[in-house]
Design brief:
The protein has 368 residues and is α/β, with parallel strands linked by helices. The chain has eleven helices and 17 strands. It has two domains: 2-169 and 334-365, Medium-chain alcohol dehydrogenases, catalytic domain (Quinone Oxidoreductase, Chain A, domain 1, Alpha-Beta Complex), CATH 3.90.180; 174-311, 3-Layer(aba) Sandwich (Rossmann fold). The longest helix is centred in the middle third of the chain and has 13 residues, at 171-183. It starts with a strand and ends with a strand.
Length: 368
């Protein structure tokens, strides 16, 4: 068993508590990772507040990066000392996984949100030996050590700063992948992106990489909108000051070719549909609590418009994370401009700063 230090969600919507924990040795198909850093994602807060009812107490965190300390006997592609970014969990055996779409894995929800392995066990225990929910995205990276699997660990070059790349495993691959892997806009296309958080700004950078000629970012925060312009947006709309749909149609009178909804707001979701041209495609990536509903005009879809839900940017992490790293190295995906670092014991401050909009992408650095 490995002793570790972790931030634990013990009560719904309450601050996380820092405690010493024990982590079992990896099983044959698992790896033990010394976590160097972990991004803080909106989904962590949704689960903390039980928008998805993962059992508490729970170790959250699903944008981890670190160094492999040990591997199980069945692991063949990774070894101790490898640097890895951790991403989402998938079975690797179902029809969806075998067809190259692991983001549609038939066990996706159970493996990422059950709070335990598929057999119901969990490798995390508190100081009294009581089991704590974990295996969150098969990592639970708000800790100094985490158990993961070979499937959701992506080996990265050792010249890439480990403390920086964790968010590529979820939020940033979700935004960038929604554009590059899912919407796939042709050069010269127009796109409206609703929300200038980490996902939306990653999407804006990806839209520039794709060659979109009109990239409109909508938000309520002028500082974020200014950053969006720096990162590749051609236009911005402050939704406090103008009707988003009207402002977008002032820029593109016939409506945009693509839109991306990143806010989880039903009202904004409707705007993302209403700003589309014909035919037009809206991608939905916002992570809302289960049961969230929105109203739409059914007539919006009679002329070929399309609505598509986007999971993890339709990304295969082993392929897409290295691609994003290369974009970053070449200066085309400067996601380092989005981040602010915190120590693990500042996790509640990091979450509060993310929720208030003060910080775009907090990253926790672990103190070993």
């Amino acid at each position: 068993m490995k002793e570790a230090y972790a931030a634990i969600a013990r009560q719904k919507s309450k601050p996380l508590v820092l405690e010493c924990i024990g982590i079992d040795d990896p099983r044959p198909d698992e790896i033990l990772v010394r976590i160097v850093a972990s991004g803080v994602c909106h989904t962590d807060m949704v689960v903390r507040d039980q928008g998805y009812e993962v059992p508490l107490p729970l170790v959250l965190g699903h944008e981890g990066s670190g160094v492999i300390e040990s591997v199980g006997s069945d692991v063949s592609g990774l070894e101790p000392g490898d640097h890895v970014a951790l991403s989402y969990a998938f079975c690797g055996k179902c029809e969806k996984c075998l067809s190259g779409t692991p983001y549609y894995c038939v066990e996706f929800y159970e493996r990422n949100f059950r709070g335990a392995r598929m057999d119901g066990t969990c490798p995390i225990h508190d100081s009294h030996g009581n089991q704590i929910s974990g295996c969150f995205f098969e990592q639970s990276s708000f800790a100094t050590y985490a158990i993961a699997t070979e499937r959701n660990a992506v080996k990265i070059p050792k010249d890439v700063p480990l403390e920086l790349i964790g968010p590529l495993g979820c939020g940033l691959q979700t935004g960038a992948g929604a554009v590059l892997n899912c919407l796939k806009p042709k050069e010269g296309s127009s796109i409206a992106i609703f929300g200038a958080g980490a996902v939306g700004l990653a999407a804006a950078m990806a839209a520039k990489i794709a060659g979109c000629s009109t990239i409109i970012v909508v938000d309520l925060n002028d500082e974020r909108l200014n950053l969006a312009m720096e990162l590749g947006a051609t236009h911005t709309v402050n939704a406090r000051q103008a009707s988003s749909v009207t402002a977008i149609r002032d820029i593109v009178p016939t409506g945009v070719d693509f839109s991306l909804e990143c806010t989880s707001s039903p009202k904004v979701f409707r705007q993302a549909i209403d700003c589309l041209g014909i035919p037009g495609t809206c991608g939905l990536v916002g992570s809302s609590p289960l049961g969230t509903e929105a109203s739409i005009d059914i007539g919006s879809f009679l002329f070929g418009r399309t609505l598509i839900g986007v999971v993890e940017g339709q990304s295969v992490p082993a392929d897409f994370i290295p691609q994003l790293i290369e974009y970053w190295k070449s200066g085309r995906f400067p996601f380092d401009k989005l981040v602010q670092f915190y120590d693990l014991d500042q996790i509640n401050e990091a979450m509060a700063d993310s929720e208030s909009g003060k910080v775009i992408k907090p990253i926790l650095r672990m103190q070993q």
